UniProtKB/TrEMBL annotation:
Example GO biological process: NADPH regeneration
One Pfam family from the record: GFO_IDH_MocA_C3
GO molecular function: nucleotide binding; oxidoreductase activity
Entry-linked PANTHER family: BINDING ROSSMANN FOLD OXIDOREDUCTASE, PUTATIVE (AFU_ORTHOLOGUE AFUA_2G10240)-RELATED, NAD(P)-BINDING ROSSMANN-FOLD SUPERFAMILY PROTEIN-RELATED
Keyword Oxidoreductase included in the entry's annotation: yes
GO cellular component, one term: cytoplasm
Recorded family membership: Belongs to the Gfo/Idh/MocA family.
Location of the GFO/IDH/MocA-like oxidoreductase domain: 137-262
Protein name listed in UniProt: NAD-binding Rossmann fold oxidoreductase family protein
Length: 357
């Protein structure tokens, strides 16, 4: 007996969209990929080879995409500037949305989308934060719930990405919204995942430098940045991100508690293999990029989203945390730009007082 499947489309067939499409096609049991959208000829050629033979309809415009008969849900993996508008239109049409982050760059815009999703009885919205769906991070969360390290006090989380000086990446950085909004927001979200979704920020401060992408300084951004978020319940999160890693993708997290510590991937490595070479060095291969590190987590995330839609269950990533993460990321980006510490009241609302770092 065949199982009910959610009819899904993918908007955007760049690196992320291609992976979502292949996962939906082959690895998410309750999903049926029925269409995909891209305006780029090179991506259409890829789709003609990899998707069309499986019965997937490929269109070149978003407007055509939302008119595909039977479409029930979409994964939005288009360019960041299109995320908010495409999400809004899909929700209006009763189409469920899983949108890659950042869904937008302002709190006001996100609040409108959240309100729209809450007012729409036929469609749901989830923003993608893939690290939550990684087996290692999920295991760490369970151990915290089991009181393995007592009460969590301090989180240190970092993500280091390989240096990319290509013109495409330079433009990506210019459009990204900044290092905290674009990438450190994943670490911010993890702090809520481990400290608790109800955690309220008290203050944030940030600093950074531009080692290779010096053009970022003109817009108050950096290619290496550190941020600290103090929460009202006496917990602290420390974030570090580099866009200039020489050794590959390096993502590590430590959670210090009153009775122990949890560590995730402190030594970046693909597996447990070590290489002893003729020069007398012991080497461990690392992941070349973020997708390689989280390939299985993307499948888990898509599966959890599809299951929640079909079962009419709560989304596996709450929108309240998406709002909170963006608010913290924006405050950190402001602190980086201005050199000022940013404060929040006990309800999490920004307050006007600030001071120099």
């Amino acid at each position: 007996m065949s199982i009910p499947k959610l009819k899904v489309g993918v908007i955007g067939l760049g690196r992320m969209g291609k992976r979502h499409a292949i996962n939906l096609l082959h690895k998410v049991p309750r999903a049926e990929l029925i269409c995909a959208c891209t305006p780029l000829e090179v991506d259409i050629a890829w789709a003609n080879e990899n998707l069309v033979p499986h019965g997937v309809q490929v269109v070149s415009t978003f407007e055509e995409m939302v008119e595909v008969p039977g479409l029930e849900a979409v994964i939005i993996a288009s360019a960041t500037p299109f995320h908010a508008a495409q999400t809004s239109i899909c929700l209006e049409r009763g189409i469920h949305v899983l949108c890659e982050k950042p869904i937008c760059k302002t709190i006001e815009e996100l609040e409108r989308l959240v309100s729209q999703a809450q007012m729409c009885p036929k469609a749901t919205l989830m923003v993608a934060f893939v690290r939550r769906f990684d087996a290692n991070y999920q295991d760490a969360r369970k151990r915290i719930e089991q009181d393995a390290i007592g009460r969590p006090l301090i989180i240190r989380s970092q993500g280091c990405e390989p240096l990319d000086m290509s013109p495409f990446y330079q433009q990506y950085l210019a459009d990204s919204g900044g290092i905290f909004i674009d990438t450190i927001i994943h670490d911010i979200d993890l702090s809520l995942f481990f400290f608790g979704e109800d955690s309220i920020p008290k203050s944030v401060s940030a600093m950074g430098t531009s080692a290779h992408h010096q053009q970022l300084e003109a817009i108050g951004d950096a290619d290496n940045a550190v941020g600290i978020c103090e929460y009202w319940d006496d917990k602290i999160a420390f974030f570090y991100n580099s866009r200039t890693s020489a050794h590959g993708y390096d993502n590590a997290t430590e959670i210090f508690g009153t009775a122990g510590k949890l560590s995730i991937n402190l030594q970046p490595r693909i597996n447990s293999v070590e290489i002893c070479d003729k020069d007398g060095f012991v080497k461990t291969p690392v992941h070349p990029g973020w997708y390689d590190r989280y390939a299985e987590a993307f499948v888990t995330e898509a599966t959890a989203w599809v299951d929640a839609v079909l079962d009419e269950a709560p989304m596996p990533h709450p929108l309240v945390s998406t709002l909170k993460s963006l608010g913290i990321a924006m405050a950190l980006q402001e602190s980086l730009r201005t050199g000022q510490k940013v404060f929040f009241d006990q309800s999490g609302v920004r307050v006007s007082e600030s001071q120099s770092l």
